[in-house]
Design goal:
It contains 20 helices and four strands. It has about 475 residues and is mostly helical. The strands form two sheets. It has a two-stranded antiparallel sheet with strand order 1-2. A two-stranded antiparallel ribbon has the order 3-4. Helix 2 crosses helix 4. It is globular. It is found in: Cell membrane; Membrane. GO terms for molecular function: ammonium channel activity.
Length: about 475
């Protein structure tokens, strides 16, 4: 094996003269924090927030998606998102498995410049860590996006259909948003601000989830009428992992352990805390009870809302965004949803259209208002940008760019997700059979989340096993 020039003469191939160990360590840590948001974060949250009979299936949908995205990402999807341009909104597919490529210094598009002749030239940022770190960091972002889509489909989508949906949606939807906004595509060149995923992750997840839910159809009547969480504490655990993991989500955005990363982490917590408090107060005022599940939704909307502008807004703006993140999605979910025929028609199981699409769009628009010029100068992709709040034609133009960028992302996901669902329907059913819908996990996987017997149940050797019978079958005998 030939050794790249940067490593020749070193006794340790892990050391290069350009490597910043602090930045690399932080980026690897941030990547792992984001990964933990999915595994076990959303696995636990999904497993706990659904009805008991769907706990296994819901958790497994998240687990499968995480694994499937990894393989697709390194074989073709990473370069479609961050590689050589194929179209103004799409990169050229290719593997990210070459050793020399992965250990070499990362190079990513940073900010748009114009040559003297007026043609566009994109500068490159060279983070002080290997490309392998960037592949890892961006993969966990792609994975959590697909898992968020699953939140709209829990409790009825065929697992075989889900297995096909994940690679197709990653390839034809996620990569387009990632390249357009982050990878040097036309929205990137135009200067749309998406600090860490409002336009690449949350709006697409909410819109795609809602669209796919339309094509899959609703849960069965009994599940839709009564769908209590089977474990509130699991749900809170998952939400806690999301909240703490978001330090890596937004803190990793600058690709360095710098001032911008610190600002992003602080703003993330300010916005999320404000969102939770406002949502809870609204629940108390209008419904007379503080809902724990409502608080979980508020945590998510606060995290999502701050993400587009986490490192480019001041602390007071993060507080304002938190108040709006706890009230606007609350209104669309708790009031508007019940009055809208369209929203009532589509069975979005966890309300992802509200917690991610509405909150992500809100965050993107507010970023267009509150993006602070000095902080924008610290974040290379949007150098010299500013929000409308700071005046001037540039501020007004930025707000327009934010709205137009969101409309492109929304339109693309409605169309492409619909095409994917229709195509899958020709191969396998999108929806489980009515028999499986009635039974749940035991019919789909032959497994149950809570394999307990003895509480008034008649012992069944096919379910509970012979060993259990030997150690206390008498306790499982139902009274006559």
């Amino acid at each position: 094996m030939s050794v790249p020039v940067a490593y020749q003469g070193n006794t340790s191939a892990a050391i290069a003269d350009w490597l910043n160990k602090g930045d690399n360590a932080w980026q690897l840590t941030a990547s792992t924090l984001v990964g933990l948001m999915s595994i076990p974060g959303l696995v636990v949250l999904y497993g706990g927030v659904v009805k008991k009979k769907w706990a296994v299936n819901s958790a497994f949908m998240a687990l499968y998606a995480f694994a499937a995205v990894w393989i697709c990402w390194v074989v073709w999807a990473y370069k479609m998102s961050f590689g050589e341009k194929l179209l103004p909104f799409w990169g050229r597919a290719g593997p990210a498995l070459n050793q020399a490529y992965l250990i070499g210094r990362a190079a990513l598009p940073a900010t748009a410049h114009y040559r003297a002749d007026g043609t566009l030239e994109t500068a490159m940022i060279e983070p002080f860590f290997p490309m392998a770190t960037v592949v890892y960091f961006q993969c966990v972002f792609a994975a959590i996006t697909v898992i968020l889509v699953a939140g709209s489909l829990l409790g009825r989508m065929s697992f075989m259909a889900w297995m096909l949906f994940v690679p197709l949606w990653l390839t034809f939807s996620y990569t387009v948003g990632a390249f357009s906004v982050w990878g040097g595509g036309f929205l990137f060149q135009w200067g749309v601000i998406d600090y860490c995923g409002g336009y690449v992750i949350h709006i697409p997840a909410g819109v795609a989830g809602f669209t796919a839910a339309y094509w899959v159809g609703p849960r069965n009547r009994k599940d839709r009428e009564r769908f209590p969480p089977n474990n509130i504490l699991f749900t809170l655990t998952g939400a806690g992992l999301l909240w703490m993991g978001w330090a890596g989500f937004n803190g990793g955005g600058p690709y360095a352990a710098n001032v911008d990363a610190s600002m992003a982490v602080l703003n993330t917590n300010i916005c999320t805390a404000a969102s939770l408090i406002v949502w809870t107060c609204l629940d108390v005022v209008f419904f007379k009870k503080p809902s724990v599940v409502g608080a979980v939704q508020a945590v998510i909307t606060g995290l999502v809302c701050i993400t587009p502008g986490a490192g480019v807004v001041q602390g007071w703006a993060a507080l304002v965004m938190g108040v709006l993140a706890g009230s606007v999605p609350w209104y669309t979910m708790m009031i508007l949803h019940k009055r809208s025929k369209l929203l009532q028609q589509v069975d979005d199981t966890l309300g992802v259209i509200h917690t991610h699409a509405v909150a992500g769009l809100l965050g993107g628009v507010l970023t267009g208002l509150f993006a602070e010029p000095t902080l924008c100068n610290l974040f290379l992709p949007v150098t010299n940008s500013q929000g409308a709040f700071y005046g001037g034609t540039a501020g007004g133009a930025q707000l327009g760019k934010q709205i137009a960028g969101a409309l492109f992302v929304i339109g693309w996901n409605v169309v492409v997700t619909s095409i994917i669902c229709v195509a899958i329907r020709f191969v396998v059913p999108l929806r489980m059979s009515e028999e499986k819908l009635a039974v749940g996990d035991d019919a789909v996987h032959g497994e149950e989340a809570y394999a307990l017997w003895g509480d008034g149940e008649l012992y069944d050797v096919t379910k509970h096993g012979e060993d259990d019978a030997e150690h206390g079958a008498s306790a499982a005998v139902a009274p006559v």
